[in-house]
Amino acid sequence: MTTSTIHDIGYRHYDGRRNGRAYVLRSLYVHNVRAAFGLGRPARAKVMPFLLAAIMLLPAAGSVAVVAVTDQADALMRYSSYATVLQVIIAIFLATQAPVLASRELRFHVVPLYFSRPVGHLDFVLAKVAAMTTALFALIAVPVTVLYVGGLVTKVPDSTAQLGRYLAALVGCALFAVVLASIGMVVAAFTPRRGFGVAAVIAVFMLSSTFVLIIQGIAEARTNFTLSGWVGLFAPFNLVDIVQVRLLGAEKSAVQVPPGVGGGVVALALCAAIVLGSIAVLYRRFRKAGLS
Hints:
By secondary structure, the protein is an all-alpha fold. It has one domain. Helix 7 crosses helix 12 and helix 8 packs parallel to helix 12. The longest helix has 33 residues.
């Protein structure tokens, strides 16, 4: 007969503080925000996000400098149009950083490791979308803030009206950030290879904008300006710009926008549908990956 021996190898129960769901969610969020800017990663991972952030700041700094030299308040860029004017830079930032947040765990098959601990699938998705939204909001809102502060320093007239436009523009920045982040994260989550993810995200924005411009050009050639405005709902940047124009009182940056407050309400509802739908799709994507 064989004998068995029980060895005490030092395993003990954890008796420390349990921080709970809020701490897990906050930790995931902070980790992903840092990842979006390459913080905590090699130096080469920081080059692209910070280079694009610097490029985003240049027009704002240049606009303030022109106003300071010429004393012409009209030379200051409009707050609400900043994201639309620089949409190419924003799209590149999203295309390069969304795969870092959405597809890296999928590519290396480590998603089940997250869910082996008490991390909810919805918490995981919300933390990632919120982190990408925060990164985009910072990318857009910081230059807009530079415009506002620069306008105050250079004594642009009617500071009270400028404050109202600035606050409305911040709401627009937040809407741009959450809508674009949701779309980019979904596209990146279904393209695990980072190179394909970058190309896919850029293609979505380029193709949608090109399609809308073509249809709007045809509609305007036939003097159907109402159709031209409604078609703008199918391009993400135009979609948010419609909300800014019809509900936040901004001047339009797109060719045409839908008429009346109703057009803004429809655009806002579509923005909400995009965000909620994207979260649902990401939930199913990561849940399936966590079970595999």
